Structures are given as structure tokens and as C-alpha cells.
Amino acid sequence: MGKESTAGLSDFEKQRLANIAERDALLKQLNLKAQSNGIFGSPKTPRNNASKSRKPTPKRIKEEDSPILPRRQSSRLKGIAAESEVLKRKAEDDYEAAKEVDRAKRMRRTDEFSQSDMFIAGQKLSGDSLVGVDIITKGVAEPYVRTFDDDDVKKTTDKDLKVLREEMSGLQLWESWDPQRIKITPERIYSMTFHPSESKPLIFAGDKMGHLGILDASQEKPDVGDDEEDDDPDPVLTTLKPHTRTISSMMVHPSKPTHLYTASYDSSIRELDLEKTTSVEKYGPDSKNIDEAVSSIDMAGDDPNTLYWTTLNGGFGRYDTRTPLSEKTVSTWQLSEKKIGGFTICPSQSHYFSTASLDRFLRVWDLRNLSFDEPAPVAEHESRLSVSHAAFNAAGQIATSSYDDTLKLYDLGAKGLSSWEKGHGISDRDFRPDTVVRHNCQTGRWVTILRPQWQLNPQSRIQRFCIGNMNRFVDVYSGSGDQLAQLGGDGITAVPAVAVFHRSKNWVAGGTASGKVCLWM
Questions:
Q1: CB of 297 within 8 A of CB of 307?
Q2: How many CB atoms lie under 10 A from the CB of residue 488?
Q3: For position 417, what pLDDT does the model report?
Q4: Contacts of 138 (CB under 8 A, 6+ apart)
Q5: What's the superkingdom here (predicted)?
């Protein structure tokens, strides 16, 4: 190193640099001697002790239950030349065969099912019906952190509201079984409903693979003795499989209590006879190759025979089940360019219905004035992000949930919904939410989308709806946006994302991604 480069350095730094230079020179000299004496081999030659440094390969444990597969054999031993046309053709045939098997599993079945055809698990009935005679007649979740507690119940001067808050907050988890033991479906729950009977809580749940679970919550847990050998029985459940893909929506019409209608992503709507335990397809496209995933179904309160539905393609359909199924008897409209996630018919004015779509719009439609060529809504409102569901109640209110982390309430009843004539319309400026409630709707990939659901026939003047809470609760709100309760309890370890009200009783059920049910009564 030159004197110019060390001029400004301290004596210590000068000595350190001198030591480094001396060491480098010594190493270089030793390396040259070693190479001349042949001590270092070629870099490609493996070292003698390489095998010692390897980690021992763990022994594989043979599983007794694993199937014995045939030994693999090369194409050469089979007499097939490498890269030959025969080998390529065989690979293509195998791929197409696997693809066809997967397609067949997902294709809807149009035939009639009996109980034995659908039965998967649980209580297999022999000659009995599924229902008894008594029925036939904002951003980040904080698990278990409450946002509404006992102190909030009392924060009101409205006596009726306070009474209802105390009543709803007083609902208790079903005591007979822990929620962890009520596994009603094998996969994630996508849709649920109560049977309209008031004699006992009967719950139906549909999951992502087409399973239908049924729980009769009037059953009592049998007494278990002190003997350790006595089993602690699980609740009696029934699991059927009427569909090949996700059951997206379901309902029981109150005037037709023996029939459950289920809609599915397999493009079909089926009717399950709860007395005979048989299932028949009531609607489906002409060809099995047509994919029109049904996202939601509903029926007018005064008509138990006409089905209405929406699709993931933005379509809306109507079909009277008393007529033969054909292109002439099915009416369809294209109401959105993107997915319609949910819709409902107004219970009190059945010619009006609302839709919520991925294009961020809530829209209200009038069936009396719905053009097939260019359907125009009565009113529409655009949110910042997509709208998941639009639920109508008998008072003419619409509750929506949206990915902008809000619940919006629109009061069309106060705007004269019952007196609107055919062709009535509302401008975008006049159609705004009357109430906006902050609510975390960020479900992510593994939790079913949160949707509000009204109690259709409340036993007081105050309308109320329920919706899942990402903190592992179910929230209950009034029609004016006041929170009435936050339902929770021990044993709830997952988000009860699919929350439903019984149409007249203060019974609330929540379904989770693990196929389990929470029930408050």
C-alpha cells in the first residue's frame, strides 16, 4: 500500500492494514505450494468423507390401511418407444378420462332421489318422515372481543327498545350439546334456514359440496350414568346429499311446510319432500352441459308454486312449478353484467324485489314493469365496493351488507312503497340509505360471506335482523340500525357466518366453516 493512501490514518490503522497484507501474502504462498504437491484434487472430485456428512434417511413406516399399488414399470419394459405417438396418445387419453370423471362428479343429477340415494350419515330413517306430525300441521377481526355488552343494553330511553334488547340479549345457547359437537354438515356451511313450525326448532343447513344437514333441536340429551364405560352420545343428525355442488340457498314456504326447496351451484333447484324423504328436480337448464350456478331462491308469500332465482351470471328467473318445464314456461331476465349474490322478494308487495350484485349496486325491480330486452330498475344505489345481499322485510325496508364494511338500511315503506303505481321510479339522488352501520364484512377466502336476514314475522312493532360477526358472535339489529344483542357463548371457536332467524320465534342459528351449528333460544 502506498504512502499516499496511509497518510491520514492513525498508527493503529496503519498496523492493522500491514497485518492484513502480511496474512494475505502468506496464504497465497501456502496455496501455491499445496497445488504443486497435489494436495488439492479437482473440484469435481467428491470428498472421501462426503457420505459421512449426509443425514441418515428416515425409515418409512408402512401403513396397514394403505392400498397395495402395482409396481411402476417403465415404458421401455412395456415395449413403448420413448416419445412415441403411442405414449403421447396414452397420456392424452388418461388426462381426458380424469377430466371426465371430475366433470361427472360436478354435474347435476336430474333424476328423483330416495332417502337411500341421498343418505350420507347420521340417523337413517326407516319409514318415518324427516319431520313429525306436529310440524306438518371493519377490517380485522378480534376473536371474542365484544362490541356490544350488558351496559349497552340499558343505553336507551325507548322503553320498547330496551325491553326488546333485554329479551334478545337474554337468548341462551342450546344447553343439551356443546356447539363443537353439533356438526351438521361435512363441509363449510353456505346456507341455512329454520322450518316455519313453532312447535320445535328444526334447522336445515347446506354446505359447499352439496350436503344437506338436518337438526331437530327439540331432542333431549339422554342421561349418562357414572360408569366410565357409558358413552356420551352426540345429537341425532341426518345428512343427505341432494346436490353435487354448493347449496347456495334454501327455503320452506309457510303454506307448504312439507317441502324444502334448495338451490345449488350445480345449476338446479330441487324439492325435498320431508314426509316421503324424496328429492326431485324442479328447475334446471335444458342441457347438463349448461352451467348457470343458482345463487339464491325465494318465493312470494301468497304463491307457494312459483320459484324465483338469481344466478352467478347476473340472471333472474321465474318458473311456475305447476306447468311443464320448458323454454316457454321459464321466464329469464339479464339484470346485471356480474354476479348477483343475493336477492329477496318484498313479503308485503310481492311484485317488488331487490338484488345485490358484484358490480356494487343495490337495485329494486318491479315485476309488473320488467322488460325482457332492456330491464330498468325502479331504483338503484351504488356502494364503494360489492354488495353481498339485499334483504326485504314486510315493512318495506331493505338491509344490505357490503365489502365496504357497512350495513345499509333503506326504508322504502316510508317512501310510500305500498301505493306505488306501475312504472314508478326513484332518482339516484333520492335513493340513499336511511341508516349506515359500521360492520366488519371482511370474511376472506375461508369464511362464508356475511348476509343479513330479517325475522319475517316479528311479534312486536320493532323489525329486527341478524348477521354474523367476525369476532365469533351473531349480531342482532333493529330496523332503525340500533343493536339489540350480540349472541355468543362458550364452545364457539369459529365464526358463525351464516346467521338466520326463525320467521316468528326468537330463535337464532349460526353456521360455521367447519359445518357446525350454534343455536340460541
A1: yes
A2: 19
A3: 95
A4: 405, 438, 439, 440, 441, 442
A5: Eukaryota
DSSP of 84-112, one letter per residue?
-HHHHHHHHHHHHHHHHHHHHHHSPP-S-
Instruction: Give the per-residue pLDDT at 110.
Output: 72
So what's the pLDDT on residue 396? 97
Q: What is the pTM of this model?
A: 0.75
Q: In 358-463, which ranges are E strands?
A: 361-366, 379-382, 387-392, 397-402, 406-411, 435-438, 453-454
Tell me which residues of the chain have a pLDDT lower than 70: 1-8, 32-86, 103-104, 106, 113, 116-117, 121-139, 224-230
Enumerate residues 6+ apart whose C-beta is below 8 A from 453.
Answer: 391, 465, 466, 467, 499, 500, 501
Residue listed under C-alpha cell 341425532 = 236
For residue 250, the SS3 value is strand
Instruction: Give pLDDT, residue 225.
Output: 63
Other CB atoms within 10 A of residue 31 CB:
12
pLDDT score for 269:
97
CA 129/CA 259 separation, integer angstroms: 12
Is residue 249 classed exposed, middle or buried when 0-12, 13-18 and 19+ CB atoms within 10 A define those classes? Answer: buried
Sign of the CA dihedral running 380, 381, 384, 390: negative
Sheet strands (E) in 90-222: 119-122, 189-194, 202-207, 212-216
CA dihedral sign of residues 365, 367, 369, 374: positive
For 106-137+142-219+234-520, which CATH superfamily applies?
YVTN repeat-like/Quinoprotein amine dehydrogenase (2.130.10.10)
Residue 322: per-residue pLDDT: 94
pLDDT at 223: 76
CA 497 from centre of chain: 8
Spatial contact of 324 and 347, defined as CB atoms under 8 Å apart: no
Residue count (the chain): 521
Q: Which of 499, 216, 475, 451 is nearest to 518 (CA)?
A: 499
Cell output for 207? 354446505
- The per-residue pLDDT for 143 is 86
Q: Kindly compute the dihedral angle of the four CA atoms of residues 206, 212, 217, 222, in this order, to the nearest 10 degrees.
A: -130
Q: Give the pairing of strands 361-366 and 387-392.
A: unpaired
Nearest to 270 by CA among 291, 290, 241: 241
Which three cell numbers, joined as nine digits, stand for 203?
334447522
Picking from 387, 314, 398, the residue whose alpha carbon sits closest to that of residue 354 is: 398
469: which 3 cell numbers? 360477526
CA distance readout (Å), 77 to 72, 88, 456: 10, 17, 71
